[in-house]
Amino acid sequence: AQSVTQPDIHITVSEGASLELRCNYSYGATPYLFWYVQSPGQGLQLLLKYFSGDTLVQGIKGFEAEFKRSQSSFNLRKPSVHWSDAAEYFCAVGPGTYKYIFGTGTRLKVLA
Amino acid sequence: DVKVTQSSRYLVKRTGEKVFLECVQDMDHENMFWYRQDPGLGLRLIYFSYDVKMKEKGDIPEGYSVSREKKERFSLILESASTNQTSMYLCASSRGDTTQETQYFGPGTRLLVL
Predict the structure, then answer these.
(1) What gap in Å lies between CA A106 and CA A55, rounded to an integer?
(2) Which residues of B touch A88 (CB under 8 A)?
(3) A68 beta partners
(4) Edge to edge, what strands does the sheet with B4-6 contain?
(5) How far is B95 from chain A (nearest CA, A)?
(6) What's the pLDDT tens digit per position in B56-107?
């Protein structure tokens, strides 16, 4: 079955520290992969997406993600976290026409 | 910029009431979606529409219906609200007929059913 797993429900990092949020997927072919961010009380905003080509994808707000086919992973990274990055992050897979499958989200807390 | 608006940010309704959640997008997108977001469950697709008057069930359509009479507007209807429908509801829209297209989300409606 197609699925997306975000194994970390909560992550806490200090401001200025590096960040990696994990995302693993299960899908039979090359998926379309997305990372979205949801700030408190807001809708979801696209950070970045991968369809094909270069496996390292750059997004907005200084985020990047790397597609690793052998590990079925699409982890999100940022070299230096800012307090404004505190939010919930969702990984999503687009396995077919129209539909996404979303992970359960990782809530990021940033310590000053 | 794409703008997706939802008619209410917060709603409080009573069990058994008929509830309408409205979503409007201003970018002439073909596709529109309704999701439900619950802690620990992520986003789950309720219904989506790929054209006016066209709709398809998502993963959790029970207890919900939808209406799309105009391209820019997609309504979610709770025919008889129940307490287990207390949740955050997110509307989204996208262009075209492939999953490559980014989905743009509204700010959400937080519904409380008493």
Answers:
(1) 22
(2) none
(3) A73
(4) B4-6, B19-25, B73-78, B64-70
(5) 10
(6) 999 999 999 999 999 999 999 999 999 999 999 999 998 876 656 788 999 9
